[in-house]
Amino acid sequence: MKTLHSLIAALALLCLASCTSLPDNVRPVSNFQLDRYLGKWYEVARLDHSFERGLSRVSAEYSLREDGAVRVLNRGYDAGTQKWKEAEGVARFVGAADTGHLKVSFFGPFYGAYGIFELDHAGYQYALISGPDKSYLWLLARSPQLDPGVRDALLAKAAALGFDTGKLILVKHD
Length: 174
Known about the structure:
Layout: H1 2-20, H2 34-37, E1 39-46, E2 55-64, E3 70-78, E4 83-93, E5 101-107, E6 110-119, E7 126-130, E8 137-141, H3 148-160, E9 169-170
Antiparallel strand pairs: 1-2, 1-8, 1-9, 2-3, 3-4, 4-5, 5-6, 6-7, 7-8
């Protein structure tokens, strides 16, 4: 019985660790500066998931908490119900604070990977984000619209890494 408990505990730890790891060939950016990343970002494109399904005008706002963690406030408009939906979470660095690899939780002790693998280091105006596997992809920008040439180049990079960019939803912000 003790062996079974040890096996279950080991599998649980492995599962929790794998939820915060990034896909094999996705590398988080270095020289990341959290203070420049804080503030409001708009979703330009995303792969579909139930927690955002049907939402438009989606944004994420990042702010520093007193404990040093990052407050995450995601917001989107549900045209079907004609109501705004919000989710508040917390993000913490997985490793060094100058690497764009965080873990985010919206549900207690359960964290998911948040890997910034492309970033406008000069102006912090756009970012590509991955989750724990390639079914999670977000293109964020500081404004609701992103130059089509920049957008296409970013999506080409994501496609080259194996993300299914043909399934991306271009988020409406009207």
